[in-house]
What does this fold into?
Amino acid sequence: MQPGARGTLWWRALAWLALGIVFTATHWPNLHIEWPMRGGDKVLHAIAFMILALIWWPTGFIRSVPLFALVAASWSILDEALQALPIVQRHAGVEDAVANLCGIAIAMLVIIALQRDPRTPGHAVRALAWRMVIDRPQAWMACAASSALGAMAGGVILVTTQSLLRQPIKPMHSALIGATLGVAVALHATIIVMMRSMEARIRAQRCCPTCGAPGVDGPACAACGAVVPTSTWMVPFARSIGGVPDRHWIRVGLVPVSIAGVVLVLIMAVSIALSIRRIEALEPYLGIEVDPGMRLMLDAVALAVAASAGLWWSRRAAVRIRAKEGIECLACGHDLRGVVPESGLGRCGECAEPFRVQPAGSVRQEG
Ligand SMILES: [Zn+2]
Ligand SMILES: [Zn+2]
It folds into this structure.
């Protein structure tokens, strides 16, 4: 069995389960919940559809990002429209549909931001490690356990902090935010730890990136016949940002962060202009007030857009820098044109940083 095949099946089961839960919750007849703030249900709508999209993307049913976004958006609108059926005694609202779309927009920005350039050193190993991790039941159990602990810890910490600071915010509200943050932090940490140990194992055992068979020796895998370049197991740069050595930190770090900041400021300006974010001095000229829940969600979309713009810029800069791999040393800038590489892997004569030789025809256009 190919690595990742079993994991994909489990992932698909999880996706259908999540879809069932969200559909049941949005169509539960005559459901009324007392929300701690006006528009709180909008936040829940957005979170539900964001998580749904994030769970469905790795199932691999749809591999094109625009098509996936279109299907997800259509589903969320259909889900809302079905609530107009008399039998469920709910009401379909444009605001709820907008909330659903906001959640999907955030999920799509996350998906785009997490897409990696296959030219990044270590990409093949990372992709194989991911497929091997999701195949292991222990990994799923570790994620479930750490999410539960993270939710409890996050909820308790935020509620305690809120009560100590005497903030005018309801305990249920802060428990929900704390639990969500706790789950995110715990899941992230668990996945990073599992991925690191799996990547180390793959490098140590020289596993084939296609079939996962260990002990590849030579230009091709003995088990599946796939061509495996020696540079596959090359350890990525020790100190790196975005897969390029950190001496490029201004281009791949500082500039993108500044761009994200500028985008955020621009969006906030628009939000003030549209009186979504209210300024007291302008009060006499403002229109209808947007629900706090709706505003919270629009702010989340704004943050996601800004972060995504910064990441996009950073990745584009990294691609441009990596296009020079094999021509000049990425770590020290030394000219490498005289260096003769062995089986696709060379070393800088100045700082000994390894570099891969781009196979003929795959040299990227700068742009
Ligand atoms: Zn193989
Ligand atoms: Zn060098």
Summary: Residues 329, 331-332, 334, 348, 350-351, 353 surround zinc ion (ligand 2) (CB under 6 Å). The first helix runs from residue 5 to 27. Strands lie at 240-241, 244-245, 345-347, 354-356. The chain has a mean pLDDT of 84.
